[in-house]
Automatic annotation (TrEMBL), chain A:
Protein task: Component of the origin recognition complex (ORC) that binds origins of replication. DNA-binding is ATP-dependent. The specific DNA sequences that define origins of replication have not been identified yet. ORC is required to assemble the pre-replication complex necessary to initiate DNA replication.
Source organism of this protein record: Chanos chanos
Keywords: ATP-binding, DNA replication, Nucleotide-binding, Nucleus
A Gene Ontology molecular function term of the record: DNA replication origin binding
Main location: nucleus
Protein name as it appears in the record: Origin recognition complex subunit 5
Residues of the Orc1-like AAA ATPase domain: 22-164
PANTHER family: ORIGIN RECOGNITION COMPLEX SUBUNIT 5
A Pfam family matched in the record: AAA_16
Length: 445, 396
């Protein structure tokens, strides 16, 4: 039985319903309530709440404010591309429609404070007003005075107002160099496995008993807990895979007590889900369709990452291959790979000490256009005239983001490029023109 | 709950009282805003400017003069004094009537506003900057009967600088017109301003009439204070000498000198309420005032800082010595800090607390920091010399 939230100034039944709606967050909710105090008391000017994604920060805060019917404004900073929108939303939800429309066109913080002061002198706060700013880390990128201003808002407007900031980032990264009013820090810890189990088991399917769903969640967490502790993600996966879990029961192959059989049925399925639907390789709609098709044993649809094959013109393929070779081979070795009658090179001289680490780990290196063309002519068997089309193919490879231009100092005079494709991609491309790229790569010598 | 944590100046509800005793009287006289009866120690400069402007007024021609000098040497006060005596002379019909206009570069939002202000003061007209420039151009280049000489004082000239310098050019070009009858007196802080920022076209118009105000020597400062006090006996001789010697050694700024004297009278008054003394400002009061105004606040701030903050500064210096550089990342300093904590027998801080300490020092400008979103990689530099920090840390 969860601990009953206790606080003077609020009715018991409200607190009761609040307790029921906040599973596993009683400690945080009661701290928050203690900080907020009674409705007519002054609260601390600013509270900063941080914790990982889906640890119930905004849910708990908004739930408390809504359930206790406190005047509040909940604004997500993602939506507010300019401070004006932020001010407008705050005034709109605290003072109603007419207040927000009286803001000037491009309001500054001082306009907001002036208007707020004017409005709260007309109807002074009988209860603490709350401004909840979600994703508060975006405030840092707006005007410099916005974050310090909001932290001191209670003092600036001389009204009973508290600003609650919600963020996934720790407070240390918020302080500007000029200092500010320090808020109270409140941390929401991650849910433990038992807590996740408890929360997920709350939303059971109506046609199946509670215990069965709880068992299902147990299996699900056994598979997914090591990679994912995000409540939202887990809930999504639970909803998605539950029909599959129930299949043997519907077919009559198993009874509800045959836990081992059910587990045997669902476990490989969940493992597959981790590689496909969890990585968003295939969408959840496709996944559901696939589950229906399972009986026919249809071919599994290819995921997003399987579509890496791109159709390119003949010379573009060779240009890309040449660019890849130029990016991942040291320029010193070009003579050995691409010249017919290179002088004799001993392997010991050939390998330098610092080049023993794989170039593929260090990433592509930039190369000049001349080198690209030299390798290109050596790689292509036929004679290719350096026509405009060859050069325009290079620049269109840049626009396709298969090559990138490095250092935008000069477009025409010896530009430098990098190759931005993976080894799998280039291997697929070279197979289509029957060119063995691995033989030409220094790393695989 | 902390409310009204921002420090602010209390607003005055009653008007300032008239001076009751000697010290208050002295304070009123020493105030920078009270106009003195005469300007001692600037007689030569006064005479030069006076004769320059007077000759131009009598001849009915125009000209420019550039006046420079470090702050607090009496440039603006002398020019105002000159104008006052010229206006007196004009009232007694010794010289022809003239008109005085003053603009200040600091009071303008934009250099082109100078035109608007000049036009408004000349003829009560309001116009846009471009229009005002055209009107002024017309006014100064066309002959008009019964035109009186205009004396224009341009204070803080360096703020009228624009990229094409057309405001300065016009200001210096108008006096050279045949019918302008305009005398322009310009004031700035630097002596080589015409050479440094003006293009040739402008500097040549300015001409060669330059005057530079030297900083006051201690004797001059003493004379200024004595003349200001004008037989109000509030200071001991030695005290006055100490103030003027100190100020002359540092900057020769008369305003600074007056401020110190006023502060010394306040300290004296405060002391007198405790125990009965002579009621005169003596050496100790002046010493206290000088200490307040000249001593570096950094050292006081460091010696008043918390234990962990002092330890952090010590860690910064240790790390600098180890690296042989004047810059280190927070990470490096923090390791030193933790080692120092163990040596001192204190509980080592967590990274968040360490960052908070560091950023508190940064916001009081004892350290220079990079933006805080770099986290442990932010680079730390000292804003004070290492010797100052060590000196402040030693005096417990």
């Amino acid at each position: 039985m969860p601990v009953q939230l206790q606080h003077s100034g609020y009715s018991a039944e409200k607190l009761q319903s609040l307790t029921e709606s906040l599973p596993c967050r009683e400690a945080q909710a009661s701290t928050l309530l203690a900080l907020m105090g009674e409705p007519d008391q002054y609260s601390y000017p600013s509270i900063f709440i941080y914790g990982h994604r889906a640890s119930g920060k905004s849910y708990v805060t908004l739930r408390v404010l809504k359930e206790l019917e406190l005047p509040h404004a909940a604004v997500s900073c993602v939506e507010c591309v300019s401070p004006g929108l932020l001010f407008e939303q705050v005034l709109l939800s605290l003072f109603g429609h007419t207040a927000a429309s009286s803001l000037p066109r491009c309001p500054s913080l001082s306009d907001f404070v002036r208007l707020y002061k004017q409005l709260c002198s007309q109807n002074p706060a009988k209860q603490t007003r709350y401004i909840v700013l979600d994703r508060a880390e975006l405030l840092r990128d707006m005007e410099v005075n916005l974050l310090p201003g909001f932290l001191r808002l209670q003092e600036l407007v001389d009204d009973n107002v508290t600003v609650i900031l919600l963020s996934e980032i720790v407070w240390d990264k918020f302080r500007p160099n000029t200092g500010l009013f320090e808020p109270l820090l409140l941390h929401f810890p991650d849910y433990t496995k038992a807590e996740l189990q408890k929360i997920l088991a709350r939303d059971s399917h109506p046609s199946y008993p509670q215990e069965l769903y709880s068992f299902y969640i147990n299996i699900l967490l056994g598979v997914f807990y090591s990679v994912c502790r995000d409540l939202r993600e887990l809930r999504h996966l639970a909803a998605l895979n539950f029909p599959k879990f129930c299949e043997p029961l519907e077919n009559g192959e198993a009874k509800e007590s045959d836990t081992h059989k059910l587990w045997r049925n669902i476990e490989p399925h969940l493992k597959k889900a981790m590689q496909t639907v969890y990585l968003r390789e295939i969408s959840s709609v496709q996944w559901e369709q696939q589950q229906e098709m399972m009986e026919k044993e249809a071919m599994a649809p290819k995921g997003l990452s399987a579509y890496t094959h791109v159709e390119l013109p003949y010379y573009s393929k060779f240009l890309l291959i040449a660019a890849y070779l130029a990016s991942y081979n040291p320029a010193r070795t070009d003579r050995r790979f691409f010249l017919k009658h290179h002088g004799k090179m001993k392997k010991t001289n050939f390998l330098k000490k610092h080049e023993k680490t794989s170039n593929h780990l260090l990433g592509p290196k930039p190369f000049p256009l001349d080198r690209l063309l030299a390798i290109f002519y050596s790689v292509v068997d036929s004679r290719v005239a350096p026509t405009a089309s060859v050069f325009s193919q290079i620049s269109s490879l840049v626009t396709l983001q298969l090559l990138t231009l490095v250092g935008h100092d000069d477009q025409l005079d010896s530009p430098k490029y990098k190759c931005a494709v993976s080894l799998d991609f280039i291997c697929a491309i070279s197979r289509t023109v029957s060119f063995d790229i691995v033989r030409y790569l220094y790393d695989f010598l | 709950t902390p409310r009204y944590a921002t420090p602010s100046i209390p607003s005055r509800t009653q008007p300032a009282r008239t001076p009751g005793n000697v010290l208050e009287e002295a304070r009123a006289r020493l105030h920078v805003s009270s106009v003195p009866e005469s300007l001692p120690c600037r007689e030569q400069e006064f005479q030069d400017i006076y004769s320059f402007v007077e000759s131009k007024i009598i001849d009915g021609t125009g000209g420019c003069m550039y006046i420079s000098g470090v702050p607090g040497t009496g440039k603006t006060a002398t020019v105002h004094e000159v104008i006052r005596s010229l206006q007196q002379a004009a009232e007694q019909d010794e010289i022809p009537q003239f008109r005085f206009i003053e603009i200040n570069g600091m009071k303008m939002t934009d250099p082109h506003q100078a035109y608007v202000q000049i036009l408004q003061k000349l003829s009560d007209q309001k116009a846009t900057p471009d229009h005002a420039a055209a009107l002024l151009e017309k006014r100064f280049s066309n002959p008009a009967p019964k035109k009186e000489t205009t004396v224009l004082l341009v204070d803080e000239l360096d703020l009228l600088w624009t990229r094409k310098q057309n405001v300065m050019y016009n200001l210096f070009d108008w006096p050279t017109r045949r019918h302008a009858r305009l005398v322009v007196l310009t004031i700035a802080n630097t002596m080589d301003l015409p050479e440094r920022i003006m293009i040739n076209r402008v500097a040549s118009r300015l001409g060669l009439t330059r005057m530079s105000f030297q900083p006051y020597s201690f004797k001059q400062l003493q004379q200024i204070i004595t003349s200001r006090l004008n037989r109000v006996k509030a200071f001991e001789e030695d005290a006055l000498q100490l103030v003027s010697r100190k100020v002359a050694a540092l900057s020769g700024d008369a305003r600074r000198c007056l401020d110190i004297c006023r502060r010394a009278t306040e300290i004296c008054e405060h002391d007198a309420s405790d125990k009965n003394t002579t009621g005169l400002v003596n050496m100790s009061h002046v010493m206290a005032a000088l200490d307040e105004m000249f001593s570096s606040s950094y050292i006081t701030a460091i010696s008043c800082a918390s234990v962990q903050e002092q330890l952090f500064l010590r860690a910064v210096i240790t790390e600098f010595r180890r690296l042989g550089l004047e810059e280190a990342t927070f990470q490096q300093v923090f390791l030193q800090h933790q080692a120092l904590c163990r040596v001192e027998g204190l509980q080592p801080l967590s990274v968040s607390e360490g960052l908070a300490v560091c950023q508190r020092l940064g916001s009081s400008r004892l350290l220079l920091l990079e933006p805080s979103r770099l986290d442990v990689l932010l680079r730390v530099r000292l804003n004070v010399s290492q010797d100052d920090v060590l000196y402040a840390l030693k005096t417990d």
